[in-house]
Amino acid sequence: MKPFLGFVRKEFYHILRDYRTLLVLFGMPVAQMLIFGFVISTEIRNVNIAVYDQSNDTYTRQITDKLLSSGFFRLHQRIQSPGQIQQAFRSGKVKEVIVYESDFAGKLLRSGLANVQIIADASDANQAHMMVGYTTEIILSCMASWNKNVPSPVNVQIKPRMLYNENLSSAFMFVPGTMAMILMLICTLMTSISIVREKETGSMEVLLASPLRPFQIIGGKVLPYIVLSLINAVSVIFLGVFVFGVPVHGSFFLLFVECLLYISLALSVGIFISTVTSSQQLALFLSMLILMLPTILLSGFIFPVESMPTILQWLCHLMPPKYFITILKNVMLKGTGIDTVWRETIVLLGMTILFMSMSIKRFQIRL
Amino acid sequence: MTKEPAIRVRDLVKKFGSFTANDKLTFEVHQGEIFGFLGANGAGKTTAIKILCGLTAPTSGEVYVTGCNVAIQPEKVKKNIGYMSQRFSLYDDMTVAENIWFYAGIYGMDRQQIRGRISQLLSEMGISHIRNTLIRDIPIGWKQKLAFLVAVFHDPPLVFLDEPTAGVDPLARRQFWELIYQYAARGKTVFVTTHYMDEAEYCDRVCILSEGRIAALGTPNELKKLWNARSVEDVFLRIARPNHNKN
C-alpha cells in the first residue's frame, strides 16, 4: 500500500508542477462552459430588423411597437421602397424585414384579412427559423387582443408548455453536453498522455523493473485524475446551477455515482489508448480524434440522434457520451431515479469493463 | 564452497517474428564481479537485459537471477535488483530528494531507513546542497551519478546498468566508474552495457554480442590474448568487421 501512495504522490507532483497541464485541467472546463454558454444559443436577442410600412395606420404601428418592445428585435431602419429591401439585407445589418401591405387597416376592417410579409435572412437557417417564429407569435398575439371585442365563431387557443425547460433555456442543453465532453476529454487525454510520457522517457521500464505490479502503476497514474475529474464535474455542475440556472432535481448521490462511472469509463479508454500508442503526440491526436468530434456531433449533445440517418444512429449508440448525457438529463432536469436510467448505466458499466480488460490484455502482451 | 552465480542463463532465445534478437545465449555472472555486456547497436544487448530484469519474457531458455527463475518468480527477482535505463535518469520536475524518496518508496523501504540513507549518501557525494533542486536544473554528469545512486538505494545484490554513461563527458564517466567500483567492492554484482571500449577495460569480465550470439566471453586480458589484440576495442572491431564485409 505504501509504495502505491508514494506513486500517487509522485503523480500529483507531475500535475501540480506543470502549469500548462493545470491550466488545461482547470481552465478548460470553465472556459468551455462559458464559451458554450454564449455560443450555443436557442434564444434571440436584439436582432436588427427593418420595417416597410406601406399603410402606416394604427394597426401596423401597434404591431411594430409590440415587436420592438419585446426585446427580441431592434429597429434598424424604415424602408420606403421595395428596392431598399434587398439593399438592407445585402448590407448585412438587417436580419429581418417586415412588410405591411397598403391599406392594411382598411382591408382588415372590411374583409378581416390583411397581409404582413416576414422576410428573413436565412443564410443562418437556425436563426431565421427562430426569428420568424418569434415574429409570428407576436403578430398572432396582437390579433388576439383585437379579436377580444369581436367574438369570432370558432376560437381555439393553443397554450404550449415546454416541460423540464419552461423557458427553453439553452443552458439546459449544453450543461450536460459540456460535462460529458469535458470529462471525456480530460480523463482520456490526460491519462493516455501521462502514461505514454513515461513510456517515451523510458521511466516506464524502470517502474516495470521495480517490484510495483502493473496494476499498481496504472492505478497510481489514474487515481489523481479521478480526483481531479470529480472536482471538475462538481465545478461544471456548480457553474451550471449558479451561472446558468440549470436545476438538479434528482439525487446528488446518484449524479455523483454516475459521474464516477463515466469517469472510470473515460479513464479506461485513456489507458487503452496508451497501450496502443508510443508517443505523446499520437496519444493526443488519437484522443482528440476519437473523442472530440464524436462527442460533440454524435452524442445528441447538439443534434438529436433520432433525426440522423440510420447508420449514424448506430454509430451514436457506440458513443459513451450519448448514454451519459441521457442520464444527466434524466437526473438533473427530470429528477428521475435509477429506475429510468439503469439501461444506460449498464451500457456504461459494460463499456468500462470491456476497455479495462482490453487494456489489461494489451499490457500483458507487451510484457 | 560454490556460490550460486548472480546470473545464470542457459540457451536463452528471444525471437520477434522471424527476427532472432538473442540466439542461444549461455553465460554466468559471478557474485561480486563487474560484468561488461558489449555489442554494436542491434546486437541484442537491450533485449537480453530486459529479459534478465523480467521486463520481457524469453521465447525459450532458462534464466536465473539472484537464484530465482525469472519466469516463475519475477516479483522476487525485481526486489533483488536495481535497474538504470539508458534513456532515463530521473524525473525532471521533481527534486533530488523527492526522486530518491519515490524510488525508495516503490522498493518498499520504510521512512526511517530512507531518511537516514539520503543524508548519508548526499553528503558522501558532496551534493547535500542540491538536495532540494529540481533534477532539470542540475548538470547531466551529476544526474547520471544520482540515477545510479537511486538504482542502488535499496542496496540490491545485483544492479543492471543499461548504457549508463551515454552522452557524459570523460571526467564524469571516470567519476561514474568510481561509484561502480565502490559498489562492487562491497561484494555487489554489476551488470553493465556500454559503447565505450575504454570502459570495457574496467570490467572484470566482458561478453561481446554479435548478431544475437555471444562472440567472445572472458576477462579483458584473456580476450586480448586470444584475439592477439592490443585492447578490447581491437577485439571488438575484429569481431564486428567481418559482419561489416558481409553486409
Please give a structural write-up.
Chain A has helices spanning 2-17, 19-39, 58-69, 83-91, 104-111, 125-147, 171-201, 203-209, 214-242, 252-276, 280-297, 310-317, 320-334, 338-366, and strands at 47-53, 73-78, 96-100, 116-120. Chain A is of the alpha/beta class and 367 residues long. Chain A has 2 domains: 2-40 and 169-366, no CATH class; 47-147, abc type-2 transporter like fold (3-Layer(aba) Sandwich), CATH 3.40.1710.10. Chain A has a 4-stranded mixed beta sheet with strand order 2-1-3-4, with helices on both faces. Chain A is elongated. Chain B is an alpha/beta fold and 247 residues long. Chain B has one domain: 3-Layer(aba) Sandwich (Rossmann fold). Chain B is built from 9 helices and 10 strands. The radius of gyration of chain B is 18 Å and the shape is globular. Chain B starts with 6 loop residues before the first strand and ends with a helix. In chain B, 43% of the residues are buried.
How are the elements arranged and paired?
The complex is a heterodimer of chains A (367) and B (247).
Chain A: H1 2-17, H2 19-39, E1 47-53, H3 58-69, E2 73-78, H4 83-91, E3 96-100, H5 104-111, E4 116-120, H6 125-147, H7 171-201, H8 203-209, H9 214-242, H10 252-276, H11 280-297, H12 310-317, H13 320-334, H14 338-366
Parallel strand pairs in A: 1-2, 1-3
Antiparallel strand pairs in A: 3-4
Chain B: E1 7-16, E2 19-29, E3 34-39, H1 45-52, E4 60-65, E5 68-69, H2 74-80, E6 81-84, H3 96-106, H4 111-125, H5 140-151, E7 158-162, H6 170-185, E8 189-193, H7 197-200, E9 205-210, E10 213-218, H8 220-227, H9 232-246
Parallel strand pairs in B: 3-8, 3-9, 6-7, 7-8
Antiparallel strand pairs in B: 1-2, 1-4, 4-5, 9-10
